[in-house]
Amino acid sequence: MRQTYFISEPLPCSYLANRVERKYFTRISGSNSVEMNDRLAKHGFRRSRDIMYMHACPTCCACVPVRIRVCDFAPSKSQLRTARRNSFLKRIIRPSEPTEIQYELFTSYLNSRHKAGGMEGMTWQDYSEMVDGSVTRSILVEYWQPHENPEAKKELVGVAHVDILDDGLSMLYSFFDPGRPKSSLGTFMILDNVNLAKEHGMKYVYLGFWVPGSEKMGYKAKFSALEALRSGKWSDIGDRSSYELRTRRPSGIGAQFKLQEKTEMQAAVSALA
Length: 273
Description:
This protein has 273 residues and is an alpha+beta fold. The protein is 26% helix and 27% strand.
């Protein structure tokens, strides 16, 4: 059965001011949803619920899909300190099913970090649909602070929503206790997922889009053994500073196709899949 693709209407960019974004997307479902998720992730698509999408902006290609090559990863001194600082946390892997304590942490995180973002005001139903594991192979990786006193309440401090791909882990979304800024929990969860991938003999940890010039997405470029998807091929990311040009010299799918009819876009991306 032929996969159907669509292109969104222009909207204000989520990452860079004074820019417009468009997304190219398809819906995955049924018996081939896992296979489609695996295949499209390797071509730079990201998953949100049952939607796989990539950027198709007509005048910009700043969004760079990146992944960590697990076998060659070496943490920096700062990342080693972050790992040691959080080494007491207990990792628990759960099925991708929502819990009330997760949702409480999620809303606390959004209210602190993304109060004016597109996820503001997400209800329990919204969260449940976001982490629903019925479409693909996904898990929720929880991080708990244990207590020596058995009567004290254990505390959930971080959650990573992760897809299990055939060649690695795809970190879809992470959230954590905003009251622990010095713990660098976001960085720690990426480091721990690299360890988790290594424990299971997986090759990559997919981080989604790195966006040069975007403060909230810049942290992804700080990891070693980082690969970028360029012209349909994954290769070492190289000099991070050279990517600043990509915000002004588009060469990605959006620049290639500009505002062509979506039927032409379908044929192009279907060839990738």
